[in-house]
């Protein structure tokens, strides 16, 4: 099989950037070029202020950039030079057209694939790094074989394999007869906030290929790249469709655990059980295990919801409505959890938020990242706005401009000034909490623990009774309530002022 000397990664985002930086770091003999159409993003990758915050990333990038790691907007040059190309572009949920709200928008994958087909002058191994619906590799293979073909519904129709050429059919013949493209699936399992350690010490690396000599040979070439630092027995090869589906399946199973524990948190609140104790007890069963059983205000992030909706769409397309309903419930439970927590805040604050100040601690979807995609904090702030509260947000890593973008209605211009009448951004947690009626912890940043923050100082600055709603179970409720706070924790029974209305 071919020994890879030059890699191009299309898409310099949360996945392409860290993944290919680590590949370069661990394989000094391979030239890695990460390309993107977004010039500002590439400029940031080439500067001292990287475009994403990820512990350990700065060190990896700084040790390799300019040596065998390059960031560029010249997509064509990147493709021309590479033996192997990662397609690591975004695959958001479609907002319009067939499958809107569920199916993945594969427009970016399609245009990157077309670009490869158009520009390449030598054989290429093309690797799906983006998370895609099952059988997308087949569509990609079709595109590189017939670059002038116009596929409008790549995502929606990716399961309709009848519409696509089968192996050996005439259409599969390359549009550029002397050039061969091999398509591999290599889904990424890193989680944000721990991306570098996930990449350094992966549980497994998954490579899907066609079960043909060429397919197996391409998979072996990619396996060699990972073997630069990953043990061979952790590099798993399998068929393309299993590999694609495994990515959606892994995310669905992880998110399902969170929705399951969050469903149980509602029972805890109503009965006097404590969700942390229930998680602990269940997690000790080695068949269940302790991870991903932390109750929360809801899961966020760019992957879980998108990938489950994708699985729901796939199930529906395959005429499996019961399967679709099963997975959809994971997302519905997550929405319910955010609504339920908001209702608890309103109810404890004497059934009205009008004119009250709420300090929101944390806007990122989890700690150790500045990423806010699908962050539960966005939903909560929007609920608080509807209740006419004033909201002051503090997050250690989220840019102010990002908050305004997240809170704006899509398509509405100049809305920021309207939002600013109700929402402000604080420079630190003390400023956010000053004069507030309640603190709502949305992100589990260590900075918010009672061992780090001076909650006595915060208490003194707040209106009384001063409430803390811990949506992440990070506070020692006993210690904080000794200061005087009314502490309400997700998955634990309510401690304050139960109104008769609650029993109706
Ligand atoms: P992202 O939005 O951060 O980055 C994607 C980048 O691709 C953008 O910078 C965009 O400008 C660029 N791009 C789009 N089309 C392009 C084109 N034709 N040519 C050149 N550049 C192009 O997205 P991300 O979070 O890195 O996710 C990428 C993929 O990886 C998605 O499919 C996602 O589901 C998957 N994934 C994400 C994570 C995660 O934690 N974020 C984890 C595993 C898998
Ligand atoms: C996830 C997958 O973990 C990763 O393998 C995949 O490649 C991309 O999607 P990510 O979204 O970055 O990673 O973070 P993750 O740690 O999975 O957290 C997702 C959300 O679930 C966060 O909002 C987090 O706070 C929440 N969560 C996680 C819980 O509420 N409880 C838990 O026990 C774990």
TrEMBL record:
Its EC number is 1.1.1.22. Residues 359-477 form the UDP-glucose/GDP-mannose dehydrogenase C-terminal domain. Keywords: NAD, Oxidoreductase. InterPro entries: 6-PGluconate_DH-like_C_sf (IPR008927), NAD(P)-bd_dom_sf (IPR036291), UDP-Glc/GDP-Man (IPR017476), UDP-Glc/GDP-Man_DH_C (IPR014027), UDP-Glc/GDP-Man_DH_C_sf (IPR036220), UDP-Glc/GDP-Man_DH_dimer (IPR014026), UDP-Glc/GDP-Man_DH_N (IPR001732), UDPglc_DH_euk (IPR028356). The active site is at 303 (nucleophile). SMART domains: UDPG_MGDP_dh_C. GO terms for cellular component: nucleus. It comes from the Eukaryota. The keyword Oxidoreductase applies. The keyword NAD applies. SUPFAM superfamilies: 6-phosphogluconate dehydrogenase C-terminal domain-like, NAD(P)-binding Rossmann-fold domains, UDP-glucose/GDP-mannose dehydrogenase C-terminal domain. Pfam families: UDPG_MGDP_dh, UDPG_MGDP_dh_C, UDPG_MGDP_dh_N. GO terms for biological process: glycosaminoglycan biosynthetic process; UDP-glucuronate biosynthetic process. One of its GO terms (molecular function) is UDP-glucose 6-dehydrogenase activity. PANTHER family: UDP-GLUCOSE 6-DEHYDROGENASE (PTHR11374:SF3), UDP-GLUCOSE DEHYDROGENASE/UDP-MANNAC DEHYDROGENASE (PTHR11374). This is UDP-glucose 6-dehydrogenase.
